[in-house]
Amino acid sequence: MFTIKSSSEFMADIKALDERLKNIRINSIEVDRAEHKVRYNFICDQAVDEELNKKILEEAEKISSPIFREVQISVKKIVANDELINTEIYRFLTANYVSISIFLQPTDIISVVVGDNVKYTIRLTKDGVDYVNKNRVIQKLNEHLSKLFCSDFVGNVDIKEREETISLLDDNVYREEIQKIEHRTIKVKDVIVIDDENIGDLALYIEDAEQGNVTVCGTITDIQERKTKNDKPFLIINIDDTTGKTGGVYFSKKNTFHKIKELAVGDAIIARGNIGDYNGRRSFTFDKINRCTFPTDFVKKDKYKKSAPKNYTQIFPTPARETVKIKSVFDVEEVLPAELTEKTIVVFDLETTGFDHLNHGITEIGAVKMVNGKAVEQFTTLVKPDYRITEDNAKVTGITEEMVKDAPKIASVMPDFIKFIDGCTLVAHNAEFDMKFLKRFAGASGYEIKNPVIDSLELARQTLPELKHHDLHTVADHFSIVFHHHRALSDAYATSEALVEMMKIKNS
User: Which of 40, 59, 235, 322 is most enclosed, with most CB atoms within 10 A?
Assistant: First the structure.
């Protein structure tokens, strides 16, 4: 019997089968669309015999969609030991955090296994410790390790004595090299020193700037002078480097503030500062500013693009649910147009903090995968944005700051979503809007979206000319599709149902 359960409910049922399974975890789910097979890969710290293996398979079969003709499971015994854990911590840090890992040695990682718990310490320079704490690296590392080993992890960082007096994170000698390793850069011209001759002429793309100390450049789009409560003057400056926009405050400096005040809209600057959160919004605090000339021949370079990951790591697809429509179009046995059956389609929707893809973030992703014109899988997650969710925005989407406070960031979600859409045709209602956000955040994670795209809004205009409006709500009402508007997964399901109906009209 097919039963819809959450992943936590499913794992609770598995663990209840036998005491030996108290620490079992699901590592990955493999779906073979062509053969209609699904395979659940588990890890466990105890050996599993044939009888227990059969019980686990029975539970997996209960929650698997009837679309799968065959359900398989694999249970690997993996016992955490300090050597394996140290190796994986070192690999994870060097692969994901170049700026703190260059001076990291394998001997700087110390772990102790105590029963089902693992405690580990990472020894870093003070700058490295600050970076780890600011960017929640330990939390991300714990989540990663928990998917590989049947243990609970507690990590911390400790300051080690510097072997040299050079810090990779703040020393000017290495700053440009870090940016070359991690990010794309713009080389400005004709630098006129105001604040600091060591800023140089190489700046990070604003599009690539995330957190921490960075050097950026751009043309000033707005500059205003304000005063603090203590009557101390400061400037609010906004800049644009054509890849993105940022802005923030510049506080007065005795020797140079009068020169910075002379800057005007249209002037180009190169600036060093810190990107962080201010009242829940992403903001840049200017530290040092020099004048410059923005290169007239600047052409944005593409990042090195990664291929889709082999496995899901954080957000796992689940079998598609039945739609809320009384009689779902997916349940009707009929011959569907080739445009639906000859390709795998992912219908998706994004909820965001606003309309400008360069200055707002994603708060929710919902997607439905269609094979042979029928929904087979769904992908859904809330996302914690780097931008504030306003009260007006929360009223529209139903998503609040409280709801996303523990949700993953878009950078950790995007690899799984890229895997989910790999090789598929994408469909969205008003696709231009969603694709701008998707391409921006996929690009920030090193992925390029080249999927074919169908805009169901344009399709609605073609196939339903009698309607005065073609927004999703109107189209859904036309086809008697009931859904919770402005929640991503519900919108995706409504769009997928409408897509089937419109394709039938188009090909009739």
Answer: 40
